[in-house]
Here is the input.
Amino acid sequence: MRRPRRQSVASDLARVRWAALAAAPATIALLRRRRRLGLPRPASTALAASLPLAVGLALPRGRLRHVLLWCAQMWAYKFAFEVPYDRPQRLARRLRVEPAIDADRRIGRGLTPTERLQLRLRDPARVGALDRLLTAVYAAWEAEPHLALALVLARRPDRFGALAARQAATFDLTLVGYWLLPSAPPWWAAEHAGRLDPRVRRVPTRVVRDLRDEPLEQEDVEGSNPWASMPSDHFASALAAALALAEVDGRAGAAGLAYAALLGFALVYLGEHYVVDLLAGGALALGVAALERPLRPAGRRLDALWRRLEP
Here is the structure.
């Protein structure tokens, strides 16, 4: 006796979904070895993007899926953030150093705000209290957008999907700049290109060295992608998180906005971003938030289609 067509399709989809989810660990292991294996960057990025899709399709709706789907999204984002720097020599041909400096010098009336702040407020020979405080503010960003979404999930689970998608879109759209317009941050322009005052430093690395009782002046480790400055993903995601919090609780939204403002000051002072990077990141976050309402009908249709594919 033949199975009904709908039952057969559902069974086939279930096998595909669970096969995709089961392949996730192998996919992650493969992508971690992409440089040695010589995997093309577009193919690697497409594989990384398949992980959130697999998680979303394999698991039933609920808080566990929300959490795992967000984790998969952020892993894919971090991967795509690093990929452009797989070939730094080729990327260096398109590196933009001067445009942000020129824009910030106009804002700072001859000197970039990073130069003005560091030359006025810090002693390059030592790590001060302001260095430590603003580095702590900068480090808190690693958790802040995720804690904001955790509060949304706890207080407004009905809005979690839309606000998480908005936060994810804000993160992901910064990648357009990092892939197409690689830009050097202030610390790199000062230390490696000699385009800013030589006293400008990457302050967080010196704070860490001070905590470890190591010499302050060493060559800075460039990290997974040092040329991902424009737009600022830090400021864009912090502002997006504040806007999401404002929908949950006015006080939480105000606290989120205060943190975003303090983070913006820290990013410029610490040498991590130019002011123009923050302006671009802020415009991105506000633009994504503004687009949510007109895109809601399309989102509902997409959600209905997604429900048909879910277990």
About this structure: The chain has 16 helices and no strands. The chain has two domains: 1-86, 89-309. Residues 89-309 form one domain.
